[in-house]
## 1
Amino acid sequence: MLRYDYRCADCGERFELSVPSMSSPTPHCPSCDADALVKLVTAVRIGGAATSGPSRSLMPRSWEATRGGDKDVVRGWRDAAVRRERLEERHPELAPDRRPVLAHEGQFADKPLRAGDPWPSATPSGETA
Ligand SMILES: [Zn+2]
């Protein structure tokens, strides 16, 4: 069983639920029975096993996502970020590519050009820019 925190998009209720597996269907809200639940990303608790915590891409990017700057929420995410930083220092393969993206359209749609990448000398299709 996995335990997740959820927030109901309809009534705003927050609660923790157990689901049998990651692929289980989203449960219904215990307050209003809506199925519009938003899975909140906290550490997934699996029967005492160690967790790598949330990845950077799942960390809050808005004021609203920190519940308006709630001290405990901000502290929790800051601690999670510090733990993630330490984990990525020990296991660099888990760290995302954090170099700035310089181009991501046209010929770079499949593979964005990042700072430090060599400039491609010719396009595979032979197009001229
Ligand atoms: Zn609800």
## 2
Amino acid sequence: MTNTSVGWSIPIGKTRYNKTVYHNINKIPHAKVAGATGSGKTEFLRYLVTYMCMRYSPKQLEFIIIDLKNGVSFAPFQWFPHVRGIFKTVPEAVKAVKEAYQTMVERLIEVERLRAVFRREPVYSRLIVLIDEGGELSPAFAVTEEDKEMRKTAMHYLSSIARIGREPRVNIIYGTQRPDADTLPVAIRGQLEGVFCFRTENELDSKIVLRHEGAEKLRWIPGRYLYKSPLVKHDIEIQSPYVPERVLKRLIEPLIPSNTFYDIPRDEVRFKDEQMEQGDDDIGLDNVIRIGDWGE
Ligand SMILES: Nc1ncnc2c1ncn2[C@@H]1O[C@H](COP(=O)(O)OP(=O)(O)OP(=O)(O)O)[C@@H](O)[C@H]1O
Ligand SMILES: [Mg+2]
């Protein structure tokens, strides 16, 4: 249980006029992150995990991370105490989604009990199911009947969470290149109200994500995206923050116990250093965020 006063507005980048934009995950519990390959989705998801783990305690926030591209992008996060696990294959993902679903159901039962017996409203910690390359979960890509059933079960759990996860605070952030009907059933898609649409391949993909064209015309700058939310009238063009590898390494190193057995040996966690910038040594929360140039 956590304190009600904690704020859930997350900075999600800057506009061309240097104004920081916030996304309130309490008001808009589920979101999708879409865009062509190389447009910046994974980097943005990594930023979100880093920012939220720095800002909230593990009692306030937990993550279930599903990375169907092999888990490498999110491997460093295994040491954040907020992260329940990083799941890399379809069977693992199904188990993880089921775990989130069960957490949600247990909470819903408890809410009823607390209301009836104690006339009290519990405030739960937030559990975010963050999925990268969610399209890989699609039943359309199944190779056997059994595989297909498993994927359908995952979609069933996800759609339940998308429908009723708001109150028990189980949220979905779903990253995929193209959330068409094959990769993301319409019933789930409609509930993912926060939209982070990076540059798309074409007009059709933009229409699938945003319900209008435009994302195909974004400048080809990684991290540039259109933000759509039921709380804002017009889509906002934003440059996303990212976390330089060296910064991430410095944040995580103190969390790694020295003589424990891990899923991934410490040496296998690689950090690319090319994004290192001067001044990164001073790791305050502000320094976690780097915003690229507008390029104009
Ligand atoms: N906000 C950003 N600022 C600066 N550079 C970025 C930003 N986001 C991404 N990049 C650069 O672009 C590269 C590709 O980004 P990323 O891996 O996030 O793309 P993606 O959309 O996940 O692609 P894919 O669909 O192939 O997984 C990153 O390795 C990084 O170098
Ligand atoms: Mg990616």
